[in-house]
Design a protein that fits this description.
Blueprint: H1 6-16, H2 24-48, H3 50-92, H4 113-130, H5 135-150, H6 154-165, H7 170-186, H8 190-202, H9 210-223, H10 227-240, H11 245-254
Helix pairs in contact: 3-4, 3-5, 4-5, 5-6, 5-7, 6-7, 7-8, 8-9, 9-10, 10-11
Protein name: Ancillary SecYEG translocon subunit/Cell division coordinator CpoB TPR domain-containing protein
InterPro entries: SecYEG/CpoB_TPR (IPR018704), TPR-like_helical_dom_sf (IPR011990)
Organism: Granulicella tundricola (strain ATCC BAA-1859 / DSM 23138 / MP5ACTX9)
Length: about 270
């Protein structure tokens, strides 16, 4: 019977043993070698591309500085615009003298709406001219058009309101269109007013709901004696939005006797 030699048995035993794990020192040495190699390559690349690295870093720093500066300047201008707009609004909301009643002591009072509008218009126009890129500057442009109309400056009002109506802010643009339609009515251009009211009804916004434009159009027809056209608009609005503000107003217009009935619902 053949028996294996001790050497063969030892070899076989060695073959069956698990591979010896790499000790911690060897692992650390390998990691260090990889780090040194990577760092060396990085330093060599930076050395070879030193000029482009400096230019790139400089450009990035310049962009960051510019963005920070622009942000600071815009914030300062926005704050200044807010203050100036608030001052203009105080004038626009100042009381108008009432015949037979004494003016309130310490409160600026204007003789009439036109006088007040003229005073406010100068302030709004100034805010719009100096801070036109800010939110309050854009709002001031709208109020400049509104106060120009109230002051009887028809051409200035029309030009200003048209500029706002063509802007990107649809909420503000629709307010300008509504004011422009009213200006057209006052100056005998009813056809242009009708066009604007229809545009507003077709593309409403939060500031000018469709019902607002429709009621304004119906009121214009009523003032012109076109009662049937006005009633048609009121009837459509009542059926479409029976429980809304517009529907309730339309119902009251159709039946004035019931105007003291249900209150307006939001």
């Amino acid at each position: 019977m053949l028996t294996s030699s001790p050497a063969a048995e030892s070899f076989a035993a060695t073959e069956k043993e698990e591979p010896r794990p790499v000790d911690q020192q060897t692992k650390a040495a390998l990691k260090q070698d990889n780090f040194i190699t990577t760092t060396s390559h990085g330093l060599e690349w930076a050395k070879e591309n030193r000029k482009s690295v400096i230019v790139t870093v400089s450009l990035l720093l310049a962009v960051i500085i510019i963005l920070v500066a622009v942000g600071v300047i815009y914030t300062q201008r926005s704050n200044a615009a807010e203050t100036a707009f608030g001052e203009a609004m105080q004038v626009y909301q100042a009381p108008v003298a009432i015949a037979g009643q004494p003016a309130m002591p310490g409160v600026k009072t204007y003789a009439n709406v036109a006088e007040r509008a003229t005073a406010a218009n100068k302030l709004f126009a100034n805010v719009a001219d100096h801070y036109g890129m800010t939110k309050d500057g854009k709002n001031a442009r709208y109020f400049a058009g509104l106060t120009a109309a109230e002051a009887g400056q028809t051409q200035t009002a029309e030009t200003t309101l048209k500029a706002v109506a063509d802007g990107f802010d649809k909420d503000l643009a629709n307010l300008a269109k509504l004011a422009l339609a009213d200006l057209y009515r006052q100056t005998g251009r009813d056809g242009q007013a009708v066009d604007l009211y229809n545009q507003l009804a077709a593309k409403p916004t939060n500031t000018v709901p469709a019902a607002t434009a429709q009621i304004a159009l119906a009121e214009m027809y009523t003032a012109e004696g076109k009662t049937e056209q006005a009633r048609k608009i009121y009837a459509q609005l009542k059926d479409k939005d029976a429980k809304g503000v517009g529907g309730v107003l339309a119902a009251q217009k159709l039946n004035p006797a019931a105007a003291t009935g249900p209150s307006l619902q939001q």
